[in-house]
Amino acid sequence: MEISKYIKFEVTPISSEETGTPTFVITEKVEKDPAQIDLDSIVLPEKTSTDIVLPLSGKNGSTISWASSNSNIIGTDGTVKRGNKSETVILTAFAKLYGEALEKQYTVTVPASENSYGGGASGSGRTVITSDSVSVPNIVNFKTQYFDDVEADFWANDYIEKLAKKNIISGTCNGKFEPEKAVTREEFVKMIVTAFGFKSNGFTSDFSDVARGQWYTGYIDIANEYGLINGISEDTFGIASPITRADLSVIINRAVEKKGIMLDNTTESAEFDDADTIPAYALSAVLKLQKAEILSGMGNNMFMPLKEATRAEVAKIICLLLNEQTY
After folding, report:
1. Half-sphere exposure of 227 (CA within 13 A, CB side)
2. Are residues 136 and 110 in the same domain?
């Protein structure tokens, strides 16, 4: 006879008018401790410069707590603070379900702050371009210190730098920001959750396309818990789909209301020529944010609600919102 230490089963209850016993049906034999399964499903980045989500509960019902070998760099709430040198931190997860807590360690490296410079005879770490015919420092195509592809005179540079300093946004790869790239729904949710400081209370979303243990999972769980998102259908979040200006407006408006932020009506309501194309569910949010000068049209008196929002546009919007919090 095959024996398993753990089993999953379904219970068919009986009504108060019926007699007898409930029906128990074994659905799965489980060889591993469910709390261990929850630990094994956690995936943390090997390297990060932004806050990370540390789950507080597992799919099998375990309660998860965290310890950090250096809470000054990575806190037990996932907050990341970059120092003047690269640091490797050991995060320990403790999962408890029935008996003693099980534990598992994760190693995460936090690179030095990009405000830290080293080397160079002058101690600045910056390279000064000189030649035999030029006797003064010659700086060519100076770029922001954060991303190689964002020029200092780029219209959204100040917004991008401000959010990068706060680890609300990060680059895509190889020092790039890609300001004109469309923002996906999960990327936008991460930005909003991080910017406004929404914290997890252990809620788990049940969207069919949101896999457990992915970098975005915790952010979507949190946004769903606070009612910031509903998904593109009843059971689908829309992973990898670009965020539209209409959906962006709705999520922002919900975040503002959850945080109790009072937006000023600093301008008149715009009568966009394409107002009839703004989805009904987004119209009030669009007008509210437009009157507060958080959102504006796209030129030619058009709002373009179904247009994909770019990374630069979203950086500006979030900065304007945070200014409402005296950020």
Report:
1. 6
2. yes
Pairwise CA distance, residues 318 & 314, whole Å? 6
Q: Please check whether residues 17 and 132 belong to one and the same domain.
A: yes
According to the model, what pLDDT value does residue 152 have?
A: 86
Burial zone of 223 (CB within 10 Å; 0-12 exposed, 13-18 middle, 19+ buried): buried
DSSP run (H or E) holding 136:
strand 134-138
Same domain (yes/no): 216, 90 = no
Question: Is residue 234 pLDDT above 80, yes or no?
Answer: yes
Looking at residue 77, what is its pLDDT?
85
125 and 254 belong to one structural domain: no
Q: Domain for residue 148, yes or no?
A: no
Residue at a domain's end among 140, 173, 202 = 140
**SS3 (DSSP) at 24:** strand
Residue 125 confidence (pLDDT): 39
Same domain, 126 and 168: no
Reduced to 3 states (helix: H, G, I; strand: E, B; else coil), residue 102 is strand
The predicted model gives 138-152 an average pLDDT of 62
Kindly state whether residue 88 falls inside one of the protein's structural domains. yes
Q: Which of 19-33, 133-147, 151-165 is predicted least confidently?
A: 133-147
Q: Are residues 96 and 186 in the same domain?
A: no
pLDDT at residue number 241 = 96
Q: At 74, is the secondary structure helix, strand, or coil? A: strand
Q: Which amino acid is it at 319? A: C
Domain total in the chain: 2
Average pLDDT score over the chain: 80
Q: Under a CB-based contact definition with an 8 Å cutoff, are residues 48 and 86 in contact?
A: no
Interior/surface letters 6-39, b for 16+ CB within 10 angstroms, e for the rest? eeeeeeeeeeeeeeeeeeeeeeeeeeebbbbbbb
What is the predicted pLDDT for the residue at 126? 37
Three-class SS state of 35: helix
pLDDT at 75: 85
- Expressed as residue numbers, the domain containing 307 is 157-323
